[in-house]
From TrEMBL:
<comment type="subunit">
    <text>V-ATPase is a heteromultimeric enzyme made up of two complexes: the ATP-hydrolytic V1 complex and the proton translocation V0 complex.</text>
</comment>
<feature type="compositionally biased region" description="Basic and acidic residues">
    <location>
        <begin position="14"/>
        <end position="27"/>
    </location>
</feature>
<feature type="region of interest" description="Disordered">
    <location>
        <begin position="1"/>
        <end position="38"/>
    </location>
</feature>
<keyword id="KW-0375">Hydrogen ion transport</keyword>
<keyword id="KW-0813">Transport</keyword>
<dbReference type="Pfam" id="PF03179">
    <property type="entry name" value="V-ATPase_G"/>
</dbReference>
<dbReference type="GO" id="GO:0097401">
    <property type="term" value="P:synaptic vesicle lumen acidification"/>
</dbReference>
<dbReference type="GO" id="GO:0046961">
    <property type="term" value="F:proton-transporting ATPase activity, rotational mechanism"/>
</dbReference>
<keyword id="KW-0406">Ion transport</keyword>
<dbReference type="GO" id="GO:0016887">
    <property type="term" value="F:ATP hydrolysis activity"/>
</dbReference>
<protein>
    <recommendedName>
        <fullName>V-type proton ATPase subunit G</fullName>
    </recommendedName>
</protein>
<dbReference type="GO" id="GO:0030672">
    <property type="term" value="C:synaptic vesicle membrane"/>
</dbReference>
<comment type="function">
    <text>Subunit of the V1 complex of vacuolar(H+)-ATPase (V-ATPase), a multisubunit enzyme composed of a peripheral complex (V1) that hydrolyzes ATP and a membrane integral complex (V0) that translocates protons. V-ATPase is responsible for acidifying and maintaining the pH of intracellular compartments and in some cell types, is targeted to the plasma membrane, where it is responsible for acidifying the extracellular environment.</text>
</comment>
<feature type="compositionally biased region" description="Polar residues">
    <location>
        <begin position="1"/>
        <end position="12"/>
    </location>
</feature>
<comment type="similarity">
    <text>Belongs to the V-ATPase G subunit family.</text>
</comment>
<dbReference type="InterPro" id="IPR005124">
    <property type="entry name" value="V-ATPase_G"/>
</dbReference>
<dbReference type="GO" id="GO:0000221">
    <property type="term" value="C:vacuolar proton-transporting V-type ATPase, V1 domain"/>
</dbReference>
Length: 118
């Protein structure tokens, strides 16, 4: 009987050791999973920062060139307004004289298609 109880004790101890090993393996697996998750998050953050930096550089290049276009257009517009204003001030008096003379100087004439009734 004692050998049978010793055998049972050995089986129980072996089962306990196997259970402890299984628990230890589960803990290691969970620890490694958490570590892998943290590494993946760090890698994703690094990749995201890198892509955002590239995007900002491209955006700056594009917007910078658009800024140059805006400055050129603004300069051209200012120059055109300046020229028009100058032309207006130079020609306003002569145009007013022409306009007033056309309106005020009336030469009454009979229209060529008018038929004189006899």
């Amino acid at each position: 009987m004692t050998s049978q109880s010793q055998g049972i004790q050995q089986l129980l101890q072996a089962e306990k050791r196997a259970k402890d090993k299984l628990e230890e393996a589960k803990k290691r697996k969970e620890k490694r999973r958490k570590q892998a998750k943290e590494e993946a998050i760090a890698e994703i953050d690094h990749y995201r920062l890198q892509r955002e930096k590239e995007f900002r550089n491209k955006q700056t290049n594009v917007m910078g060139s658009q800024g140059n276009f805006s400055a050129k257009i603004e300069e051209q517009t200012t120059e055109t307004v300046r020229n028009l204003t100058s032309s207006y001030h130079k020609n306003v008096e002569s145009m007013m004289k022409k306009l007033l003379s056309t309106i005020c100087d009336i030469n009454p004439e009979v229209h060529p298609n008018f038929r004189h009734a006899v």
